[in-house]
Write a structure and sequence with these properties.
- There is one protein chain.
- The protein is of the alpha+beta class and about 280 residues long.
- It contains 9 helices and 9 strands.
- About 35% of the residues lie in helices and about 20% in strands.
- The radius of gyration is 21 Å and the shape is globular.
Length: about 280
């Protein structure tokens, strides 16, 4: 009879990601809250079907990014980070997308890309920019973020945590550009699509060193039964958006306001997904 409570053995060949994860979270306590909304894609798909054949391929992720960008433009309190226990708001609505892709040699990988000023771009413009960035990533062996991750993975877990904290302190708390570290790589919001994995509902933890107050996971878009305005059960294309939010930035009132903007955008895609209103105003002038 042994003295061990549980028979275990150490994990061999820990991946770089797991090393960084272990260095990131020391304990489960954090200020995150969760929320889920279902979006009817019927009108959005009808809008997409009317796009020219040579238009960029617009996906649900691009539409959601556009909607979130407009919501953050109207209610900017969520678009910031904490410095010395005070909230500082970003002056640009930028987003980071986590994407899965294959290199030309066939190797599967995960990378990130930042799209600036999402609120000032149409859904098609967002799609076009992301497609170009994915192509550049595919052509290169590594991105700046991947290179930084590989460098950090060399160190043991306790040092990784210290280094991540130091980098975050210099780049965000002191707001000083650090050589060798990508400029604001995670931006004000992280979006990733887990629908490709067959998931409808999933949540991601906030990443302390990224200083990102909101992470969105987009579920699988598929037909589901809903009750229409006449009380009839019909099949509609529905997608679930799962959000993890820093409670220091957002409460229920603000969250409710942003959800209303998102629903309004998807209810009128002809107005919101096409040419941004700022560009229309400039053209009219």
């Amino acid at each position: 009879m042994g003295i061990r409570n549980v028979k275990v053995k150490p994990l061999k060949k820990t991946s770089p990601f797991r090393k960084i994860a272990m260095g990131t979270w020391a304990h489960p306590g954090d200020p995150q809250i969760y929320g889920t909304i279902d979006i009817d894609l019927t009108k959005a798909y009808a809008w997409r079907d009317k796009l020219p054949e040579d238009a960029p391929k617009v996906t649900v992720t691009h539409m959601i990014a556009r909607a979130i960008g407009l919501a953050m433009k109207q209610y900017p309190d969520l678009n910031g980070f904490v410095r010395f226990r005070k909230i500082y708001l970003r002056q640009s609505i930028d987003m980071t997308f986590l994407v899965s892709f294959k290199h030309k040699l066939g190797r599967a990988d995960l990378s990130s890309m930042r799209v600036k000023e999402v609120d000032q771009k149409s859904a098609a413009q967002i799609a076009e920019e992301m497609a170009a960035k994915v192509e550049r990533i595919r052509d290169k062996a590594d991105t700046e973020v991947q290179k930084s991750s590989k460098l950090l993975s060399i160190f043991p877990g306790f040092l990784v945590r210290w280094l991540l904290g130091l980098i975050a302190f210099i780049t965000y708390t002191l707001n000083i550009r650090m050589p060798g570290v990508p400029k604001d790589p995670f931006a004000g919001c992280i979006i990733t699509n887990v629908g490709m994995l067959g998931l409808d509902i999933a949540y991601a933890p906030l990443v302390p060193y990224s200083r990102v107050p909101v992470i969105l996971l987009v579920g699988e878009a598929k037909k589901r039964p809903v009750v229409d305005a006449d009380g009839k059960i019909v099949a509609r294309e529905i997608v679930t958006i799962n959000a993890t939010i820093d409670h220091r930035f957002c409460d229920g009132v603000l969250l409710g306001k942003m959800v209303r903007v998102i629903r309004e955008v998807f209810d009128d895609p002809d107005t919101y997904f096409s040419t941004p209103k700022s560009e229309e105003t400039e053209e009219a002038a």
